[in-house]
Structure formats: structure tokens, C-alpha cells
Specification:
Layout: E1 8-14, E2 24-27, H1 34-50, E3 57-61, H2 66-80, E4 94-101, E5 106-116, E6 129-134
Parallel strand pairs: 1-2, 1-3, 3-4
Antiparallel strand pairs: 4-5, 5-6
Length: 136
């Protein structure tokens, strides 16, 4: 499994759904309306990203709300396009998805998303990339 340098932030998807080994929650409310779940997670992830260090590793512990998980991933990927060449927005953040394995009784990660900035043309001032990693 690949190792990343940076500050680790353990974040639960939705507070109150399951006990999670986390420091904070992406969504603090315990009840999430299905029709609002995607947008709520999307906006919360953008806010979280803005409050993390540029080399942060966000370990997102998901709880089965697919719409919330997809909203969080979409927000993480959106930020990849917001990277700039030299400014404070250049990012090397990683988001790992952590799931509970009922067979082992442990949380495991097999999927990670990374984004950052990498110049491919010195005449281009905005760029970014997202990389999805499947760990086997």
C-alpha cells in the first residue's frame, strides 16, 4: 500500500450513524435528507479542504450513504482544477476512503484520490490533476 506524507485528518462522513475512529465529521447533523445529501456533502468537503494543509491526507470514513460519499468525492475532484502554479492553492492533498470490513472487524482503505498541480506548459497558469488509486 502506498504511503503519503502529510498531516492525516480522520473524518467521519455523517455524525451519529456509526461509532467511528475520527477527529471530526464532514456532516454534523445525524439526519440527512436524501434529496439534499449530495449537495450537503459536496459543500462540506469544499469547506474541509479549504481548512486543511496543502499536503493533508484526508481519511474519510464512510457510513453507507452513497449520495454523501459521491458528493464528497465530487468536491475533492473539483478542487483539482482550482490549483494554480505558484500560489497558496497548489495542493498535494490525498483523500482515502475508509470502509468497515465486517469479516475482520477493522476499517480498511482500498481507494484513494490524489490531486495536485504539476506544470506541463510554462505558459499555462492554471492546471490541476486528480489521480484515483486502487490498492490491492
Amino acid at each position: 500500500m502506498q504511503s503519503y506524507e502529510g498531516r492525516i485528518r480522520k473524518v467521519g462522513l455523517v455524525k451519529g450513524r456509526h461509532p467511528l475512529p475520527v477527529e471530526q465529521y464532514l456532516i454534523e447533523q445525524e439526519t440527512v435528507e436524501f434529496s439534499q445529501a449530495h449537495r450537503l456533502a459536496y459543500d462540506a468537503m469544499l469547506k474541509l479542504i479549504d481548512s486543511t494543509e496543502h499536503d493533508a491526507v484526508i481519511q474519510l470514513y464512510i457510513t453507507g450513504l452513497t449520495r454523501c460519499t459521491l458528493g464528497a468525492i465530487a468536491a475533492f475532484q473539483k478542487r483539482a482544477g482550482d490549483c494554480t502554479v505558484g500560489g497558496d492553492e497548489t495542493s498535494l492533498r490525498v483523500m482515502e476512503i475508509w470502509e468497515y470490513n465486517t469479516q475482520t472487524g477493522e476499517y480498511e482503505t482500498a481507494v484513494a484520490f490524489a490531486h495536485g498541480a504539476q506544470p506541463n506548459d510554462t505558459g499555462v497558469f492554471e492546471y490541476g490533476f486528480t489521480e484515483s488509486l486502487l490498492r490491492v
